[in-house]
Write a structure and sequence with these properties.
36% helix; 3-stranded mixed sheet; 7-stranded parallel sheet; alpha/beta; 18% strand; binds sulfoquinovose-uridine-C1,5'-diphosphate; 390 residues; globular; binds nicotinamide-adenine-dinucleotide
Length: 390
């Protein structure tokens, strides 16, 4: 199977590319290195040092004898996108290549516009390229659980059977996302569903929960294969941040009361889910949605788990929530379809998150504590900052 991984230099794209390569896929990756640029803009960096994409691919080739081709370019450039897809001609395109931080999209107008243009236009270019090159190519697109928000009813896998005034239909599950970033994913989902309906494309939208963890069996083969590990308040995700805060004795920064509940998934399961979706493609014309999470926990429960695992005296600090989100709500999500395809989840209770503590210890000198405090407030249209988005 030939698989093109868009966003292959990122936190999840790189380990997934390795996982697919090891599973026997002929893999190419594409990236414009926007993620490395956001670090320069924000003055932060991955806790764990990362090699260039080219160096990582070289190491992988030396260790395994398997090559990963690299395409450097921007998905918002339609010529680049179509030429890459025409020349590599994949069976599957796995699309991770978007701006993915909710706080980044909420900094101000220019960051919101950048996020939505980058994500929506990039995905449209991919859809048009598939439509022109080969409609049989299966698009596996990373969406997010946050598209749904926290409705007061059970969350189904993408679609909802509705009976209204005596008539019934199957409709896309209603969305109530919580940031301009999460909204960009909703817009993508609608565009992809439309392309499946009008051109007969085949697509799987993976509505993924918050990811945690660092090492996968493939990246663990050599430190030079490591993926990035972010802890700053803009790009660091909640559980990864809590682990880092616990190691350095910083209070765990729970926003609001911590009652907000989120779907979670271990990074090893992300790679497995993408492989399972790729190897069991959607039918022509089908827009399929899988809820890619393995369990749900409240933020307060996560803080308690980290504190109890690592440091019983870890302080938990309840900060005024910089976001606008419900922190007391119903949350019950259906997430059976990936398990039906063979996913064997790594759950938090069985996972040695202690192993992460060692990695953080090793790199603790690289932590800039100032980057831990939240700086982006959802309630203002122009958060203070020192640089202008290019
Ligand atoms: P990341 O920022 O580390 O990786 C995304 C990669 O895409 C980066 O390397 C970036 O340079 C690249 N990219 C962005 N815009 C591009 C463009 N226009 N052209 C080419 N490349 C571009 O993010 P991640 O954490 O690996 O997330 C990957 C995907 O998974 C995203 O779509 C994200 O929304 C989704 N997701 C992530 C999480 C999570 O917790 N990390 C959870 C749910 C969903
Ligand atoms: N939170 C805290 N303290 C912190 C950081 C976060 O309490 O120090 C809270 C947030 O308020 C939020 C929850 O933890 O309620 C999750 O925040 P997050 O930053 O870990 O995750 P989020 O902003 O939702 O975004 C991340 C990824 C994004 C992905 C999403 C999956 O960055 O790419 O789409 O998780 S989901 O949340 O399911 O939409």
């Amino acid at each position: 199977m030939r698989t093109l991984v868009l966003g292959g230099d990122g936190y999840l794209g790189w380990p997934t590319a390795l996982h697919l390569s090891r599973a026997g896929h002929d893999v190419a990756v594409a990236d414009n290195f926007a993620r490395r640029q956001y670090d320069f803009e924000l003055g932060v960096e991955s806790l764990v040092p990362i090699q260039t994409l080219q160096a990582r691919a070289r190491v992988w080739s030396e260790l395994t004898g398997r090559d990963i081709a690299i395409h450097v370019g921007d998905l918002t450039d339609p010529e680049f996108t179509i030429e890459m897809i025409r020349s590599f001609h994949p069976d599957t395109i796995v699309h991770f290549g978007e701006q993915r931080a909710a706080p980044y999209s909420m900094i101000d107008r220019s960051h919101a516009v950048y996020t939505q243009v980058n994500n929506v236009v990039g995905t449209l270019n991919v859809l048009f390229a598939i439509g022109e090159v080969d409609r049989d190519i299966h698009l596996v697109k990373l969406g997010t659980m946050g598209e749904y928000g926290t409705p007061d009813i059970d969350i189904e896998e993408g679609w909802l059977d509705v009976t209204h005034k005596g008539r019934s239909d199957r409709v896309l599950f209603p969305k109530r996302p919580g940031s301009f970033y999460h909204l960009s994913k909703v817009h993508d989902s609608h565009n992809i569903e439309f392309a499946c309906r009008i051109w007969g494309l085949r697509a799987t939208d993976l509505n993924q929960g918050v990811v945690y963890g660092l090492a996968t069996p493939e990246t663990a083969l050599d430190p030079r294969l490591s993926t990035r590990f972010d802890y700053d308040s803009v790009f660091g995700t909640v559980l990864n941040r809590f682990i880092i805060q616990a190691v350095i004795g910083h209070p765990l920064t729970v926003y609001g009361s911590g009652g907000q509940t989120r779907g979670l998934i271990d990074i090893r399961d992300t790679a497995a889910c993408v492989r399972l979706a790729s190897e069991h493609p959607a039918e022509p014309g089908e827009f399929r949605v899988f809820n890619q999470m393995t369990e749900a926990k409240s933020v307060a429960e996560l803080a308690k788990t980290v504190a109890e695992t690592y440091a019983k005296d870890a302080q938990i600090e309840f900060l005024d929530n910089p976001r606008v989100e419900a922190d007391t709500h119903y949350y019950n999500v259906t997430h059976t379809r990936l398990v039906e395809l063979g996913l064997e989840p790594h759950l938090l209770a069985d996972t040695l998150i202690e192993s992460l503590f060692g990695i953080v210890e090793q790199h603790r000198d690289r932590i800039d504590e100032r980057a831990l405090r939240p700086t982006v407030n959802w309630r203002t249209t122009a958060n203070p900052r020192t640089t202008v988005h290019p």
